[in-house]
Amino acid sequence: AQSVTQPDIHITVSEGASLELRCNYSYGATPYLFWYVQSPGQGLQLLLKYFSGDTLVQGIKGFEAEFKRSQSSFNLRKPSVHWSDAAEYFCAVAAYNTDKLIFGTGTRLQVFP
Amino acid sequence: NAGVMQNPRHLVRRRGQEARLRCSPMKGHSHVYWYRQLPEEGLKFMVYLQKENIIDESGMPKERFSAEFPKEGPSILRIQQVVRGDSAAYFCASSLGTGLNEQYFGPGTRLTVT
């Protein structure tokens, strides 16, 4: 069965530091992968997605993610974190012929000034 | 263009009452998805609907939960005889179609069962 694992429940970084949030997936075929961000009390906003092609994808707000098939990973990165990036981040996978998204449990990012 | 709208944003029900959650998709979107987020957990898929059809309800509890997306009007997620364990945030998403189409999420309805 498909699944998504986000090993880090909570991450704290200083403003201006680099960030990497980990995501591992379990899926037999080529997955469709997503990163969403959820601010407190809000819905989810799509940061970026990977369907095929270039394994390094660029998203909004300066985020990028790299698909590594050999490691079944899709880690999210940002070179310099801003205080406004504090939020919960969810990795998700969707199968080609279904439309439901399977989410990881999320990583809560805290940013210190 | 308004985004996905959900109402109410907060809903309090006593055990045994019914909860009705509404979702208006983005203009032009005919595909609606419902997800549930329990405290400290990720979102779990519940049901996928197109206009007047339930396409995939594999994530819906077998009892007390139902969903519809009529030809006119919003999609409704209905929970009968609510229990404390139903307390969660319920998110609706909509998309233009299947496959590569992005799902746009609403702000959610936070249901509290007392």
Describe this entry's structure for a reader.
The complex is a heterodimer of chains A (113) and B (114). Chain A is mainly beta. Chain A contains no helices and twelve strands. In chain A, strands 2, 5, 6, 10, 11 and 12 form a six-stranded mixed sheet that branches. A four-stranded antiparallel sheet of chain A has the order 3-9-8-7, with no helix packed on it. In chain A, strands 1-4 form a two-stranded antiparallel sheet. Chain A starts with a strand and ends with a strand. Chain B is built from no helices and eleven strands. Chain B has 114 residues and is mainly β. Helix content of chain B is 0%, strand content 49%. Chain B has strands at residues 5-7, 10-13, 19-24, 31-37, 43-50, 53-56, 65-68, 75-79, 88-95, 104-105, 109-113. The termini of chain B are far apart. In chain B, β7 (65-68) and β8 form a beta hairpin. Chains A and B meet through β6 and β11 of A and β4, β5, β9 and β10 of B.
Quote the distance from N terminus to C terminus of chain B. 36 Å
Low-confidence stretches of chain B: none
Helix content estimate of chain A? under 10%
Biggest beta-sheet profile of chain B: 7 strands, mixed
Query: Which structural class matches the secondary elements of chain B?
Result: mainly beta
Strand composition percent of chain A: over 45%
Quote the average pLDDT of chain A. Answer: 92
Order of helices and strands of chain A: EEEEEEEEEEEE
Structural class of chain A: mainly beta
Give the end-to-end Cα distance of chain A, rounded to a whole number of Å. 41 Å
Shape of chain A: globular
Which ranges of chain A are low-confidence, i.e. pLDDT below 50, for 5 or more consecutive residues?
none
**In total, how many beta strands of chain A?**
12
Order of helices and strands of chain B: EEEEEEEEEEE
Bin the helical content of chain B.
under 10%
Q: Number of helical runs of chain A?
A: 0
Question: What's the total number of strands of chain B?
Answer: 11
Biggest interface, chains and residues, is: A-B, 22 and 28 residues
